[in-house]
Amino acid sequence: MAARHDSWDHKEEIVKALAKALKGSSVPEAFTRAFFKDSPPADVIEEDVAELRAIVLASYAATDQRAAGKAKIHVSNPPAQGPGGRHTQIVLVNDNMPFLVDTVTGLLTDLGVEIRRLFHPIVDTQRGKDGRRAEGDSGESVRESIIYLDVDRRGPQTRAKMAEGLDDVLQDNRWAVVDWKAMLKQLSRCGADLKYGEHGLDDAVVGESIAFLEWLAEEHFTLLGYRYYPVDKLEYTLGDASSDHKALGILRDADMKVWRGPEGMGDASAELTEFLKGEDPVLITKANARASVHRRVHMDYIGVKAFDDEGAIVGEHRFVGLLTSAAYARQARSIPLLRQKLAQVRSRAGFSEGSHADKALVHTLENFPKDELFQIDSERLHEFALGVLSLYERPRPRVFIRPDRFERFVSVFVYVPRDLYAGNLREKVGALLAETFNGRVSVFYVKLGDEALTRVQFIIRTEPGTVPDHDAAALNTAVEQLVKGWPETFLEGLSEALGEDVGRKLFYEVRDSYSQSYREEFTPLEAVGDVEALRGLVADESRERAFRLYRREGQEAHQSHLKIYRQDALLALSDSLPSLENLGFRVIDEVSFSIGVGDGVTGWVHDYTVETQSGDPLDVDALAAPIADILSGVASGGRDDDGYNALAIAGGVSPDSI
């Protein structure tokens, strides 16, 4: 009976065999057992014992010596012909602390490095004063984290880059963890200063701000960095980071900048200046810098004003970090500052409290992303919320746009009926938004649920001073066209061309006869034209074929397309090629499709890519009708099929005179 890959007993057997294979080496059996103690069985069972042996040997060797308070980083390539020879080995030995695995894997992902294997044991190591591993109990016991990774085999330059990056982020990780209590204390001190200091601000606003800072401290905010900046009382300009206040966490690094402006990353921004001049004591926004610790996302930025004894603004306390999962799980109407904003929206909507409409509004607001709720003003939130409510009553595509006042980004919400969200729609809409706002898609979030709508939020990164004006109505229309998809637009086209009743009936009868390859080749409106041409043949039994000359966007002046329609039977290329060559065409390509046209009738569409044999330009608008007349005459036998027909192209001669 085959061993189960989730069998802890089978895993234990393999670890025993591995310990036996390591006898005679310097690796203690206790280390081997500790190394795999918490590993899922599949991670051990699916590996070759020789590979596991090499992993343990490399990891134990890396623990030989480590300076106190420093991470040991070892990035190397094992011999190509030996165990693990296809990979680059990374072994990291560090004091055990939070966020290590997330921080390391986040960096490697950013570097485009694919992780093949990862083990993360926590071991107790005896170390002497020189940092060397000590035998028995002769040293100090240190709780250590070992992270072992196999990644795609890399050359010396890439390995050096990985080692340098790992050193940087592990230092950031250490600073954030070591300084956490000091940053938390500073956050509490800011709240106390607002509560008891002089500032002349509205008591209700200050009260909510203090409550918010207290809420952050209650395990709702992962503090990563703190720094204090003095502010010019008259100009509201930021000075250098103050030496009177110790910088903490990742902001210990003086080169760490969190704002991005027209001239690149810096300490200040237009948004910060506006905040310092305004009435709010606390600024909540997104930093332009991404976190190097825990999650590789844009950090949350909390700025708190500092006042002197006379109530004048003298500085900014700057905190950067990440809202925790507990913060995202909380109801928005229970979070200070947000609860005030949501109350304003509900009051402005005017729905009776507890009514169906009010409950729907609350549901919509609670499902809005927390990051967006912190940044959006109540007026725009009111507009968005009521707009979304209308979509639940009648699901349809809709776009909601919130440009950053300082042109750092544009936040765009795209709502799509759930049954229309498929395929590469997100990529198409993202490309449209990036083009519209002259930026790039920085990040996107998709919310799929049981409701009738799918929501995609795009953050379009933009450069200040380069964001063009946009037409919201036109953007909505463009997104609608992308969202509707081929079938929906085809249905609309049929209904418009044949009438609502006939068009809808025909659509549901023939829609499955239009293959994916046909849909990729022709637009829905072209398909409507094909249906009309073939239905014309069905109605006129005297005609066997129909013809249409047209040019696609991007074709050269001497090129075009020619469609030949035929009912029931496929048209052989040998039957059509002579007629086209006698017209002076050279056939470059041909595709054929069978499509339904109603009442069980099937027709064929042959699409030829042609060009003039002479290379001369082709006036498609002027020649479409004459060429169709000539080919119709040839098909019916009423006109000779010879080289004289080329005169219609070469000299613009009327078919009747040929």
Could you explain the architecture of this structure?
It is a single chain. With 658 residues, the chain is α+β, with helices and mostly antiparallel strands. It is 41% helix and 24% strand. It has 22 helices and 20 strands. The strands form five sheets. Strands 1, 2, 3, 4 and 5 form a five-stranded antiparallel β-sheet that branches. α1 (8-21) packs across α4 (49-62). The model has no long low-confidence stretch (mean pLDDT 91).
Provide the fold topology:
Elements: H1 8-21, H2 29-36, H3 41-45, H4 49-62, E1 72-76, E2 87-95, H5 100-110, E3 115-119, E4 122-127, E5 140-152, H6 156-178, H7 180-196, H8 203-217, E6 221-230, E7 248-249, E8 259-261, E9 264-266, H9 270-277, E10 282-290, E11 298-307, E12 313-323, H10 325-329, H11 338-349, H12 356-366, H13 370-375, H14 378-393, E13 398-403, E14 409-417, H15 425-436, E15 440-447, E16 453-461, H16 472-498, H17 500-510, H18 516-521, H19 524-539, E17 545-550, E18 559-567, H20 573-582, E19 585-598, E20 601-612, H21 620-636, H22 647-650
Antiparallel strand pairs: 1-2, 2-5, 3-5, 4-5, 6-7, 6-12, 8-9, 10-11, 11-12, 13-14, 14-16, 15-16, 17-18, 18-20, 19-20
The backbone outline, from C-alpha atoms, is globular
The count of strands amounts to 20
Helix run count: 22
How much helix is in the residues? 40-55%
Structural class category: alpha+beta
Query: How would a crystallographer describe the biggest sheet?
Result: 5 strands, antiparallel
Rounded radius of gyration (Å): 35 Å
* Beta-strand proportion: 15-25%
Mean pLDDT: 91
Low-confidence stretches: none
